[in-house]
Design goal:
This protein is of the alpha+beta class. The protein has helices spanning 6-19, 71-75, 89-105, 117-121, 151-170; strands spanning 4-5, 25-30, 37-42, 47-52, 62-67, 83-86, 133-136, 139-140. The protein contains five helices and eight strands, in the order βαββββαβααββα.
């Protein structure tokens, strides 16, 4: 089992996504055993088990390894598939302006005015430099909804151990 970290992992997953951008899912939940976050990234053909130190910062520490998980279970987590969807920056700004002005007339919590459904219903695409994209949706769960069995439990234990080692190396005060 090969464990990849950060940039190398991101590049590999983007390469695999770029070959076939349809049918991906991304599920994240707090880990019950390690205090980190667990994520499962899956296409119709393969799954990756990830360990993140946080979901609350822009560049978390991330480790991952390919694993064998039930593809049908992962694919059913969300009615929408994960992916990059192209955005028209002007349309987003106009929608935000409408949201702001309609919020002045009514209670702001009652009138958002920003309809994301056309973006979410659009087909995932391969991102190209210089363009604007929405990335997601990510499924966040309060508990890990993917039950790990056999080899996946071993991968999880190894990822937790490696994340702890990496954490201690980066943050010397962490024990």
């Amino acid at each position: 089992m090969e464990i990849l970290e950060g940039e190398a992992l991101a590049e590999l997953l983007l390469e695999k996504y770029s070959r076939s951008p349809r049918g991906w899912s991304f599920v994240v939940a707090p880990s019950k055993s390690s205090g980190f976050f667990d994520a499962m990234v899956s296409s119709g053909k393969q799954s990756w088990q990830l360990k993140l130190d946080s979901i609350f910062k822009p560049n978390p520490l991330v480790l991952g390894a390919q694993t064998d998980l039930d593809q049908d279970r992962l694919g059913s987590m969300s009615p929408l598939t994960f992916g990059y969807r192209e955005l028209d920056p002007g349309a987003v700004l106009r929608a935000l302006r409408r949201s702001y002005t309609s919020g002045e007339e009514q209670h702001p919590d009652l009138s958002l005015g920003l309809d994301l459904s056309p973006i979410l219903r659009s087909e995932p695409t391969v991102p190209k430099p210089g363009r604007t994209y929405a990335q997601g949706p990510f499924v966040f769960s309060h508990e890990n909804v993917v039950k790990l069995t056999g080899g996946a439990e071993t991968v999880d234990e190894r990822l937790s151990s490696e994340m702890l080692r990496l954490f201690r190396k980066r943050y010397s005060g962490y024990r």
